[in-house]
Amino acid sequence: MASQPTEEKAKQSTLSFLRVWGESPVPPTILATLITSLHARPPQTLPLLFPPVLLASTFLNLYSYTTDSAGITAAWSGLYLLLARRRKPEHMMQKFGTRGIVRATTMGICGINVVAGGWVYATGQTAGEGESVR
């Protein structure tokens, strides 16, 4: 009986963390910065298509379209995660060097964005859903 309120509190805090992360404009901005730092030198065109979309998602979030912004962030973070998982480092130093740590951080933020943004998009209301049409 005593464990049930603790489990409920833990579940509530996890869901509130996901909601706060998914509604924040900071994670897509950080992700766009990390993606740019990884793929700007030498320039790689396909991965460099992601930062403008993520920054546009941040722009939407700042203009109070948090649910739509969370959906865009989740979708594009998932696409980048699929793209980044294809590349396998050959040597051990490539995994634990500066570039490898930045790559791992980027993929971790992508994973959290997919879960948190998906949760906010699935449970949130868009701007037009709450109004009645006459």
Layout of helices and strands, plus pairs?
Elements: H1 3-23, H2 26-39, H3 50-62, H4 66-85, H5 92-96, H6 98-123
Shape: globular
Reading the helices and strands in chain order gives HHHHHH
Which class do the helix and strand fractions yield?
Answer: mainly alpha
Largest sheet descriptor: none
Share of helix among residues?
over 70%
Q: Report the total helices.
A: 6
**Strand residue content:** under 5%
In the predicted model, the low-confidence regions spanning at least 5 consecutive residues are none
Query: In total, how many beta strands?
Result: 0
Mean of pLDDT: 88
Cα distance spanning the termini: 50 Å
The radius of gyration over CA amounts to 18 Å
Keywords:
134 residues, mainly alpha, 74% helix, globular
Account of the protein in words:
The chain is mainly alpha-helical and 134 residues long. It has 6 helices and no strands. It has helices at residues 3-23, 26-39, 50-62, 66-85, 92-96, 98-123. It is globular. The chain starts with a helix and ends in an 11-residue tail after the last helix. 25% of the residues are buried. The model has no long low-confidence stretch (mean pLDDT 88).
What is the compact description of this entry?
This protein is mainly alpha-helical.
